[in-house]
Amino acid sequence: MDAGRGRSENIDPADQWVLNPNTGEYELRLSTSAPQSPRSPVPGPRGRSAPRPDGTTARPTRAPGRGVPPPRRRGTGPEEPPGRRGRRPRGTKAKRALLWTGGSMAFVLVAVATGGYLYLKHLEGNVDTIDVGDAGASSFRKDEAFNILIIGTDKRTGEGNEGYGDKNSVGHADTTILLHVAKDRSNATAMSIPRDLVIDIPECRTKLEDGTEKVIPGLQGVRFNRSLGESERDPGCVMDTVKEFSGIAPDHFMMVDFNAVKTLTTAVGGVTVCLNRPIKDDKSKLDLPEGESTLEGEQALAFVRTRKAYSNSSDLDRIKVQQQFLGSLMRKMSSSDTLTNPGKLLKLAEAATDALTVDKAIGGVNTLKDIALELKKVPTKNITFTTVPVKDNPAEVVKATVVVNEATAPQVFDMIRNDVSFTEVKAQKKKEAAAVAARLKGPKADASEVRVRVLNGGAASGSAGFQLTWLQNEAGVTKSENAGNADAEQAKTTLEYAPDQADQARRLADIMGLSGSALKPGESEPNAQGLPTMTLILGKDFKGAGVPLDSSSAKTPDVEKSTADKVQCSG
Which residue from 197, 217, 556, 570 has the fewest beta carbons nearer than 10 Å? Predict the structure, then answer.
């Protein structure tokens, strides 16, 4: 018996955790006849101990000869990844981001099913942290929208992973997903970032393990995957790079390793994938028939890693497959078969957290649990997978890289930045003061009698013209005109009107989904004919021509997207 690992050679760790009916806690049982006291230390996998009474956690040194080498220090070998202050040595762990909420979802499943605080503290001991400084938020806020950057590397460390990634890679950003979770938790967007996207990498600052600070110069016109690993760039540098090219600021990051794909898929009993045609990849040893297959372990990792099995052998093809895989994994993790099976829950929690590295701001057990509970609120039907809109790099004769598609990418970035859903969801109703709500009550003029001038006060370029065309051709507001740009930008769309135009204001509010607070009693302006006219200023919350302002969704550009609730076939 290896007491430090809390298991015997032939007993699965998940089978040793049993519910104590007297305390309501899950406890480690080292034998069938000797249940552990809830006050006893809670040994976990990999030789980690439960918290001491003062809240600290003992982390015993792993004995050599058990298949995993002891942690390395910086400079002692090629396998040491870069890091910032606060990082615990990880030895041979390669970071892989194929399970975007694996660690947090495992936390919430265990928390809800067992209520086991001591076990959650044990899981916290599995998680590594890196201080990214100003690159991320200083804390997690439950009352706000948040962005988590999921990062994976192509480093080959980790038992059984010699056949994946580049042999001598320092650990580039091979798989990256920006997860945006809406403020009202009605929806989420997971946007994949191609590793071969050509962008500028900004200068970034890292704190090394010895406490010194290193300033790493920026690079112009290089692949996105170079934002991690090279010149000791860490996850904070990747976060800075994403903000630089998209304008979206990641709040936090999560990284998991190759082995997480194997262990998580095994823990849930396999993940179902669907193919439009048979695929065979001699390099990854993947051989699957047309239709549905259930994959776990090594096969699951091969499925999300393979590129050569698809027609274009490109990273963009692989991204689509990974998105399909993640949707299937999420459905399996939230299924009743998983939620009602304590053995699966505990295996899932151990596998996910043991592979997880996060920024220091969210490394605590309570914060991870809070994130998990917030993620749990998002319906799978409103979780959208999409990819940064790209096009072939025009500077290349032989096409190997891509660049941002300026025709469609800005709207995608704006939607995420402004917390707009890619799916149709109902906005949460907010209570308004009686005086404000009263502005919407009363008679409404016919649309043909509404006179309004439209100005752009912070919406996307061309919005005033697009909205004017929609009002005239689709809504019947023919007495409308484009008045150009407003004097200043504003966050919210407003409609100013004179007292005798209240019936017109109510009609336009009804047409556009304007709230009572958007209606501003004031003065009218003369139109081209000298007639009193209301003034509509489109603010930064404007979601697109014809899209109601009281909707949290918008008409999306012509980009490929899918949702986590639907089974889709690829290949």
Answer: 217
